[in-house]
């Protein structure tokens, strides 16, 4: 089988996927989001990788970089390939987001489905602080929308700290979020809408961020001891049709209330492999295989 991973082309994460695919006799290629080209005319619509046809691939995994770099044309390209060429898409749910892939879209859906998450305000200007302070008290989290892996996010204790961050990042879209008292969060990794493993992530000393990429530490969790957390993560993965998802859940250490912080598309898994011993790369490749084998004869591409 031939797989394409969009948004990963090198590095340890890509290497792990490549190794496991090769072991199972598959071809796996990575590409940058900048490599997309789309030829459009009154008689044709042809997405490609700078002229290299997508149709030769059995499956395309929308992994990373599309939202951060605002290359939303990938949604159009993969929707076309899925609908007309029967190319299997992993994370096909996001191709239905049209041009609304930002975090606020997730908040709307979570509101509609009554999934708990911290109070959050999307805003664009420091002048919105007057309103925000009426709804969310300090300390609060302020984050640049669309940025992941612990980057572009601060814990501010007062108005001056908030204004300094906002003015330094003028022109961005921001999220102000209620701070939840915690001792870390839980990352649940789902494949095919089912949790395959979970770990608690603990922030490094002096930091509020628990991301492994910024120095957080992980502790393997027994999923059977956290049935509600697992249920919430699987429900969120299914709701958004994010087949490979890293769902971050925080438990308020004072009240025990559970909140979804983020549903990550194309989540990092090296930390989970390290702290749980689960071969996540192998599980992903096996899911690719099942997805491709699920193509019926009458769905085969022309």
Q: What's the layout of helices and strands?
A:
Blueprint: E1 2-6, H1 12-23, E2 27-31, E3 36-41, E4 44-49, E5 52-53, E6 59-62, H2 73-84, E7 88-90, H3 103-112, E8 120-123, H4 129-135, E9 140-144, E10 153-156, H5 159-168, E11 174-178, E12 185-191, E13 194-202, E14 217-220, H6 227-239, E15 244-251, E16 258-265, H7 270-276, H8 280-293
Parallel strand pairs: 1-2, 1-6, 6-7
Antiparallel strand pairs: 3-4, 4-5, 8-11, 9-10, 9-11, 12-13, 12-15, 13-14, 15-16
Helix pairs in contact: 1-8
Task: Summarize, please.
With 302 residues, the protein is α+β, with helices and mostly antiparallel strands. Helices cover 28% and strands 28% of the residues.
Oligomer kind: single chain
Based on the coordinates given, report the CATH architecture of the largest domain: 3-Layer(aba) Sandwich
CA(first)-CA(last) distance: 17 Å
Q: Bin the helical content.
A: 25-40%
Number of domains as seen in the coordinates: 3
Tally of helical segments: 8
Beta-strand residue percentage: 25-35%
Major sheet size, sense and barrel closure: 5 strands, antiparallel
Pick out the low-confidence regions.
Answer: 296-302
Order of helices and strands: EHEEEEEHEHEHEEHEEEEHEEHH
Tell the overall outline: globular
CATH class of the largest domain: Alpha Beta
Strand order of the largest sheet: 14-13-12-15-16
CATH names the topology of the largest domain as: Rossmann fold
Radius of gyration, in angstroms, nearest whole number:
20 Å
Q: Structural class of the helix and strand makeup?
A: alpha+beta
